[in-house]
Amino acid sequence: PIPLILDVDTGIDDALALLFAAGSAEVELVGVTTVAGNVELAHVTRNTLAVLELAGRGEVEVAAGAAAPLCRPLTPTPETHGPEGIGRATVPPPVARPSERSAARLIVEQARARPGEITLVALGPLTNVAAAVLWEPELPRLLKRLVVMGGTFREAGNTTPVTEWNMTVDPEAAACVLRRFGRDGAPLPLLMGLDVTQTAAILPHHLAALRARAGDGPLVRFVEDALGFYFDFHERYDGFRGAHVHDPFVVGSVLDPGLLSARRTLAVGIELGGERTAGMTFADWKGTGGEPPNCEVPFRGEGGAFVERLVDRLVALAAR
Ligand code: BDR
Ligand code: CA
């Protein structure tokens, strides 16, 4: 199995990413770290523990991390993910407690213990990843790879007209991470922006298929109640009834790199100022900036194929 640490701000699509990973035999879930983003850290951590228990994976270590971005106030988004981060879903209070160690410590200690083995998949603002690399500058070399959901290049933004959410919440953390990873021979991070993650849209007929195949039960109800809220949000802001499943698609692409193509290695920077541009990702397309490439960016994604797989995994998980 592929050893993964997931850094999440659960979050409706983060919850689905956790379920997808928990339901995938190819994944060794080394640990999960939580970061404030979609909602406050306490909600994120509670949701994460509860979702893992729903998936029968309550034994996975969950370490809480940053409660706010590096140098800006937290601006949570209850209109996107619901007041507590999981739409209209309700979950029993989790039995498990968060780990004694912090998110950054879990990431660094696991990477040191298993050099070159672990893929760190960042599905929220990059605050924890920045904290971890500031503490252990060798982190980029100790990981197999860093994979990030964030940014947008050719697609419009989903937060301001030009920025993606994870990058907008903590632009300084994103800038720090992009400067410190992918240098001096360390593996280039994979940066999956809206250009690819928006190809993965879950639609009402997928939910109907889930219920028809899996029947009624806590997992199916959770997915329906969480996604129902996300569908309403997308209907209001994106003009379709359904939802982009950004975070699960990122995990799916780690398991099956064939879901991504049109990959470019690019020098990518983060804009830190401006009324609408803080968090904007810009690529040095022509190499005029003189910086070497610091990440790999895919521009084509097979989101449709992935969503079928996501439904299959949810059906299998519900049957356990
Ligand atoms: C990202 O923002 C969050 O709301 C989602 O969970 C995803 O990680 C998409 O821009
Ligand atoms: Ca997220």
From TrEMBL:
An example of a GO molecular function for this protein is: purine nucleosidase activity
Q: Which superkingdom, per the lineage?
A: Bacteria
Q: Which Pfam families match?
A: IU_nuc_hydro
Query: What positions belong to coiled-coil segments?
Result: none
- Looking at the UniProt record for this protein, which Gene Ontology cellular component terms does it annotate, in alphabetical order? cytosol
Region described as Disordered: 73-95
**Upper lineage:** Bacteria, Bacillati, Actinomycetota, Thermoleophilia, Solirubrobacterales
Query: Is-annotated flag, keyword Hydrolase?
Result: yes
Enumerate the UniProt keywords alphabetically: Glycosidase, Hydrolase
Annotated EC:
3.2.2.1
An example GO biological process term is:
purine nucleoside catabolic process
Q: What is this protein called?
A: Purine nucleosidase
Start and end residues of each Inosine/uridine-preferring nucleoside hydrolase domain:
4-304
